[in-house]
């Protein structure tokens, strides 16, 4: 198996300040680095209006992170992100797909 490149976008609770958002992002990206993957610097887009209301929220903090790892590690990252109530939505795209 070889590492693949991925792009993660997630929307976190709009109440999070910048420090809390960075801490949350770092905690999740540890899943990748502990398994031998690499993570590029996260791109914090800040608080933005959602296209539609999700769980009573109309805004969210957007974060985009590019990383490389084994497919199983990316699956685990997706699983743990979806367990967190502070994470409103997630989307992981494989960047090197044919």
From TrEMBL:
Short name of one Pfam family: Ribosomal_S6
Primary role: Binds together with bS18 to 16S ribosomal RNA.
Family (UniProt): Belongs to the bacterial ribosomal protein bS6 family.
InterPro entries: Ribosomal_bS6, Ribosomal_bS6_sf, Ribosomal_S6_plastid/chlpt, Transl_elong_EF1B/ribsomal_bS6
GO molecular function terms noted in the UniProt entry: small ribosomal subunit rRNA binding; structural constituent of ribosome
Source organism: Bifidobacterium bohemicum DSM 22767
Entry's Gene Ontology BP terms: translation
UniProt name for this protein: Small ribosomal subunit protein bS6
Cellular component annotations (GO), alphabetically ordered: cytoplasm; ribonucleoprotein complex; ribosome
Keywords: Ribonucleoprotein, Ribosomal protein, RNA-binding, rRNA-binding
